[in-house]
Structure prediction request, 426 residues.
Amino acid sequence: MNLNFDERERPGSQADHRRLKIKQVLLVDDSRSQRRILSVYLSRWGYSVVEAGSGVEALEMLNKHPIDLIVSDWMMPGMDGLELCRRFRKLDRASNGYFILLTSKSEKVEVAHGLDVGADDFLTKPVAATEFLARIRAGERVLEMERELNEKNRLVSETLAEISTLYESLNRDLVEARNLQQSLLREPFVEFDSAKLSLMLRPSGHVGGDLVGHFPISQTQVGVFAMDVSGHGVASALMTARLAGHLSGSEPEQNLALARNADGEIVARPPCDVARDLNRLILENIETELYFTMLLGHLDLITGDVTLTQCGHPHPVIQRAGGSIEMVGDGGMPVGLIENADWQDFQLKLMPGDRLFLMSDGITECPAPDGGMLDEDGLAQVLRRNARLRGAAFFETLMWDLVTFSGDKDFPDDISVVMVEFDGPK
Prediction:
């Protein structure tokens, strides 16, 4: 092979190589003259060259130095190029490397065997300069893509690790937020002389937008409320926490639903007036696009009389002592949507053995596997089937029925219930 070609015409001239990064190439051949010829080529093309006279010597170098591009003769005494390639592939390396075999073999079976062992490319002897440079360049491009891919994988791994750390931190915060939201349920099971009051709140995620509660009015009256803030997640949960602060106190200064009469006694305000105040509060003082539905009222523990206002929340449900189901209420507008919206109170009466349910739409809209919903008819069936159950036992069975109905799928909406079981004065 003639090495004295003109620099301007020679493949891989310095001008041509400016686009390439200088790399170290390991030449493996038992023929010193063959190594010399290829080394001159590579040096003129700007590559750093390391030479080995045998497969054993080459393997020792590869164990000590991170050389990525190897050009090896196939036929060598002792360890041939094929065995060197096989052992090279078993080394613990950060890079896969690029292995070119020099061979006089041209049979397809031999070439296929070399590829199967792990060779990336072949050069047939005698080696032509233009083809040699093209194969080296191809190997360099492959190694460069591998490095870029490894770098991107490293960045992805680091990013995923950071995301995982952030997620774990966020998850801990959300679990704590869920515990705090559950703490808003003031006394979830309360027993009076004439009635039992039970609360249930099951967010669809860590936290939700539903809120249920009760508050004392007098020795013979108790207030109850059920709310459902639009949306899900943290924003809705923060809204429920703020609303809880307006309805959970036992003094008029702390609770919008309470007032003092002329004698200074604490009495219940008309629930519709409270709805108007909350509507004004949301629209004038809180910059948010959230709104909420609500049932707010108070129960006379002696007479069983209930006064309620309905603000877009699902209808209250009465289950009479005899088992019949009544859905009452006039619907009404949600709170926080329309300025100067108006609501009206309505009354109902509980008799001994009756119970009243204030439920969120997460129950009636519980999805079935076929795309349907539980709806009001399905709810009535559930209530009749569990008419003998009370308190926590009823809630556990209700959740079991909903899970069964949905085909054991996660609920897409929060589930909340206020249940008043009226026994009548003793």
In short: Residues 252 and 258 are 5 Å apart (CA to CA). Residues 14-152 form a domain with the Rossmann fold fold (CATH 3.40.50.2300). The chain has a mean pLDDT of 86. The first helix runs from residue 14 to 17.
